Records
---
Amino acid sequence: MIVLSRPATDFAALLKKTGSREPAAHGLYFYPRGRDALLAGLHALGVPPGETVVVPAYICDSTIAPLRGAGYRVLFVDVEPNFELDLAKVLAAVEQGGARAVLAVHYFGFPAGVARLVSALRPRGVRVIEDCCHSFLTRSGGQPVGLAGDAAIFSMRKTLPVPDGGALRLNTASVGAAALAAGRAGAPPVARYLATRCAEAAVAAVGWPNIYAGAVDAAKRRVRGARPAHAPEPQPVAQPVPQAPSALLARYLANADYLRQIGERVAHNYARLVEGAAACGLQPCVPQLAPGCVPQWAPLCDDSGRLVPWLREHGVGAARWPWHELPSEVDAAPQRYPVSHDLNRRLALLPVHQSIGSRHIVRMLALVRQGMAAQ
Ligand SMILES: Cc1ncc(COP(=O)(O)O)c(C=O)c1O
C-alpha cells in the first residue's frame, strides 16, 4: 500500500450540486501559487522591490527565491520552539535592516499568535503578512486565520486536490488594491493535473512503484538541480497578475459541506495518529488540536531523524520540512538559527489529510512501531 502525501481528487465533491462559497474564500484574489500571492501582497501594501522583508528562518526556499528574484532584500529571524516569532528579535531585525514588512507563518495548519507582532509593528509603519499557506481551513477563536495582519496569503493546493490556489487577502486599506481588482487572467487548465492525479491514485492502489523511495527522491532532486553551496543568484520574477480559480478549485470552494468534512476527517485522523504514535514513544509537537484547527500534517518529534526515510522507503508519503529546501544562508549557519535547524532535523511530518482512511492509519502506525523498534 502507498499512503499518499496529499489528498486525492474527490469526484463526488466535484459533482455535487453546490451552494454558497466557503466564507474563508471571500474577498480573495487568486494566483497560481502562494509565492505569487506574497509578491502581489507586498506590492499592494506599498512595499515595493528594493525594500527589506523580515522572514522566519524556518522557511522553504521556494518562498524566498521569488522574493529575491523580484528585488526584495530578505532578513532571517530564527523561530522559537513553539513555531512563533519572538517580538524582541523581530523588532531588532526590523531596526537593523530598515524592514518594511514581516512574514509571520502559521505552520502546518496550527494558528500562531500574531496579534502582539501586529500591534507593535503597525505604529512603526511595518506591514505584517500572515502566511496561511499551510492553513487555509484553520479557524482560531471562531474566525479563519489570517485576519490579524495587513494581508494574508494562502496556498490551497496544500489542503485541496487542485493545481492552483495561491490567494491573497488584504485586510487593510491598501494602495494597490484597485490595481488588483482591475485585471484578471483566465482560469488555469486542469486536464493534465487530473490525469497526473489519477495516475498517482492508480499507483497508490496497486502499491507499486514506490514514488517515495529514496532513489526516486534523489532522482527528483537531480532533475530540479543540486543545491548551490551559497545563496544562488536571484532569478528575475515578474509582478504576478490575479487569475480566476481553476474549475476544480471553484467547485470545491463552492461546496461548504465538503470543506467542513475535511476539517472533521483531518481532526479525526490527527487524533488517532498522534495517540498511536505516542504509544510508540514518539512525542507529538501538538498533542491536542485546538477547536477549528485543520493541520496539514501531524508533526512528531523524532530525535533520530530516521523515521521519515524509513516510512518513505515503505511507501508512506511522510516528510520533513523544509528538508532540502532550507534557504542556503540558514542551512550554512546552524549557530545563528538553531531552532530552525533543530525543527528541520527532528520533525517527522505524517499525512493526516482527508483521503487518509483507517487502513492507512493502521499501516502507518505499524510501520512507526517497527521503525522505532529497529532504532
Ligand atoms: C510556509 C510557506 N509559505 C509559502 C509557500 C509558497 O506556497 P506555493 O508553493 O503555493 O508557492 C510555501 C510552499 O511550500 C510554504 O511552505
Note: The first strand starts at residue 29 and ends at 31.
---
Amino acid sequence: MRSPDWTWDELLLICSRVVNNDWAQLRTYQQPTHDLAELLRSLPLHGDAARDVPEFRSAASISRKSADLITSRHDYVGPATRGGRLTKLVTEAFVEREAEMLLAAQAIEDGIASGELHLIPEQPDEVDENGVPAAEGRLLTRWATFRERSPALRKRKIAQARRLGQPLQCSVCAFHFGERYGRLGEGYIEVHHVHPLHLSGPRETKLEDLAFLCANCHRMCHRVHGGASWRTPAALRAELENAVQRDGAA
Ligand SMILES: [Zn+2]
Ligand SMILES: [Zn+2]
C-alpha cells in the first residue's frame, strides 16, 4: 500500500503553517514539521491501515508538499514542482481568503487537540455527489453537521419558540410539519447554525445562533455545491427567489 492521496483538510493544515512561515518551505529538520506530521497522522481521515505505511505523512513528505503549495502560487517565479489540482486550489484559497482559511485550519487543530473531532462518525454531507469536499474540508463539515444535530440543543430551541409563541416553521419556505402531516408532524422541525463553524470557531452554541428549517431547505443549506457546504437561511431564500424569477421569465 502506498500513502493515500492528500486531502483538502491536510493541505489546509500544511498551507496554514506555510503562510505563518511567510510562504517559506517547511524543512524536514525543523521540529514544527515533525509536530505537524504527528498531527496529520492522527487525523480521522484515512483509516488505520495508512498509518502502517512508513512514508505516510512523514516530515519529508510534508516538506515536499509545502514546496508544491508555494510553487503553485500564481505569482511564483521559478520552476514549479508537481502539485496537482487540489494543491493549486488550496493555494489559491489561501491567497484569496487568507484570514478565513487560517481560521478554518485553527478550528481543525482545536477539534483534534480537544479530542472532539475523533469521536464524530462520518456524516452524509461531507462531500458532493462526485466525492469532492467543500472548501472548508471534510472535518469541519462533519463537525458542524454533527453539532447541530444535538437533540438537547434542538429541544431547547423548540422550548424557547413555544415560550415566545413562535410557530415551528421553516424560516426559508414557511413549511410547517404539523400543518402538513397532522399529529405525526406536530413538534418536528430541524435546526441550523446561522454561523459556519469554520468561521465562528468551535465556541458554545447560543440559541440565537440557530434557525428553524424544514428537511428540504436544511439539505439545500448543506449541499456541497460551488465549493461550499454551508449557507445561511437568507442566502438560501435568495437562491429560491432567483429560481422563481428565472422560472417566471422563461
Ligand atoms: Zn423550507
Ligand atoms: Zn444545518
Note: The chain is about 50% helix and 5% strand.
---
Amino acid sequence: MIDRLETSFRQIRQFSSDASHELRTPLTVMKGETELALRRPRETDDYKVVLESNLEEIDRMTRIVDELLFLSRADMGEVKMEHLPVPLDTLVEDLHRQASLLGQERDIQVVLRTTAPAVVLGDELRLRELFLNLLDNAVKYSHPGGTVDIALTIEQTHARVSVTDHGIGIAQEDQSRIFDRFYRTDDARAHTKKGTGLGLSICAWIVESHRGRIEVQSKVGEGSTFTVMLPLAPPHRLNNF
Ligand SMILES: Nc1ncnc2c1ncn2[C@@H]1O[C@H](COP(=O)(O)OP(=O)(O)OP(=O)(O)O)[C@@H](O)[C@H]1O
Ligand SMILES: [Mg+2]
C-alpha cells in the first residue's frame, strides 16, 4: 500500500515537473525575443516578426493546456463519449485522404492497403482523433520519400486498424513508455522539435474507453506499426443503421 502511494506520488511529481518544463520552454522563447526587440527602437517589420513568433509559441502553449485539460477531465470521468454505430471503413477512407495531404508536405505517400466493411460502437470524433494522432506520428517520424500504410481488417469479433511507417522506429525499452504523458524518445527529439508527447496518451485513453487495445511493434531504424483492435458492434445494434 505504502509502495503504491510512493509510486503514485512519484508519478505526480514527475508529471508536474514535465508539464512545467513543457510550458516553460515557449515562455522562455517569448521572453527572450520580446526583451531583445525592446532593447532599441526597430522597424515595424521587425516587431511583426517577433509578434508572429510569439503567436506561434502561444498556439503551442494553448495546445498543451487544452490537451492537459482534456486528459484531466478524462481522468475524472467527465468526458462525454457517444456510443453509436460508426462505419470504420468510411472513416478510414476519409482519414486516408486527410493523411495524404499531411504526407504531401513531407513527400510521404500514404497508402490504404486493405479495407473491409466494419462497424464499431463508439464516438466518431474521438475515433477520428485517435487515428489522426497515429497517422500524424507515422508521417512525422518517417523520412522524406517514405510510405505510410493503413490497413483495416476484420478478426472474428474485432476490427483491426494498423498504421505502418518505415521511419526512425522505437527501441524495445521505450515501447512501454511512449504512452506516458510527455514521454518522447531521444531519437524523436533529434528528428523533430514538433511534439509534446501527449498524443499517444490521448490515443490510449480513447482506445480504452472503446474497450479496445493498442499495440506497437517497432525496430529502431526500420519503422513502426501501431495496431488498434476495436470490438465490432453486435448485430442487434445494426438494425435500422
Ligand atoms: N511512428 C512513430 N515512429 C517513431 N516514434 C514514434 C512513433 N509514434 C510515436 N513515437 C514515439 O512516441 C513518442 C510519443 O508519441 P506522442 O504522439 O505521444 O508524442 P509526439 O508525437 O512527440 O507529440 P504530440 O503527439 O503531443 O504532438 C514520440 O515522441 C516518439 O518518441
Ligand atoms: Mg504525436
Note: The chain has two domains: 2-75, 84-238.
